Amino acid sequence: xxxxxxxxxxxxxxxxxxxxxxxDGRLTDTPTEGLRIPSDATLTGLYRQMVLVRRFEAQVxxxxxxxxxxxxxxxxxxxxxxxxxxxxxxxNDWLFPTYRDSAALLTRGVPVAEILAAFRGDWHCGFDPxxxxxxxxxxxxxxxxxxxxxxxxxxxxxxxxxxxxxxxGDGASSEGDTHEAFNFASVWQTxxxxxxQNNQYAISTPLREQTNATMLAxxxxxYGMPGLRVxxxxxxxxxxxxxxxxxxxxxxxxxxxxxxxTYRMESHTNSDDPTKxxxxxxxEHWKQFDPIDRLEKYLRTTGALDDATVAEIAxxxxxxxxxxxxxxxQEAEVDPRELFAHVYSTPRTALAEQxxxxxxxxxxxxxx
Length: 368
Hints:
Layout: H1 40-65, H2 79-87, E1 94-96, H3 102-108, H4 112-120, H5 129-132, H6 143-158, E2 164-169, H7 176-187, E3 192-198, E4 201-202, E5 205-206, H8 219-223, E6 227-231, H9 235-250, E7 256-261, H10 280-287, H11 291-302, H12 307-329, H13 349-364
Parallel strand pairs: 1-2, 2-3, 3-7, 6-7
Antiparallel strand pairs: 4-5
């Protein structure tokens, strides 16, 4: 006699990442878990957005090295994960990004000046979250996973037709907050999609020194939710997988964990030197899987992309880069009193005292 053990029917994801378009621009024969490749029109739009965000990332990185921004964590090389996942969101869905997800913010429609306000030190968040259905980018590791889960639970209780998507890195996947979010989301079947960008390094710690797991998507089974491992440099696979996961959430079938296997081409931020912890051969290896190059090759074979269209998109990218430079040439009008404006709904004594000290200093400086 055996014990009758209930099961959620969840199994480990396949080892080989789901992929539609290979590094050579040809269709792969990798199993795609029933997902369908997006149309050429959708893929052309994704290509355009990836070109734009790569130019944005390059321009912002240059400005940071010139000292125009305090710091910047580039997502160069991760365009497929950022753009593919964010584009899958519906207008009523909510995005919960991290500090490395400026490409996602740009894809969500947030203006460049409002994205960069935080990195320049003007405000904690330079945009209205309600206008873009996007929360402020979280700097503490993994806290955004809890926010996304709690927001999704609230939406479920209210009967709203909305799902949440949150990005986290391989480093954040080792944080306690992530495990609490996974567990709560699965127990209460919240409409949450966790997009785990496995870019191989937690600042300077390689993945092999962070976990002994075969792959990070395996963790989904432990929480009783579906897990997928996706080629994170194949935007077609990312878009298809996230679209399906969002649909699951909206249908009441709960959360999904999607591991996007990708690579961070730049340093963690401008404060570290990646040559100290990885070699040139490794970087060169990953360049063969470039998300933009492979999609361009594919779309040229289908006839959806030609030289004229590529040139037009490149010109649009240069226009975007110029707008970034223009935005950074505009000095922000910052009022230091705003430090106290959105902290507590009911003022606290200690904070009021600090505010009074500031008011006194401003008056002494003739800034009252």
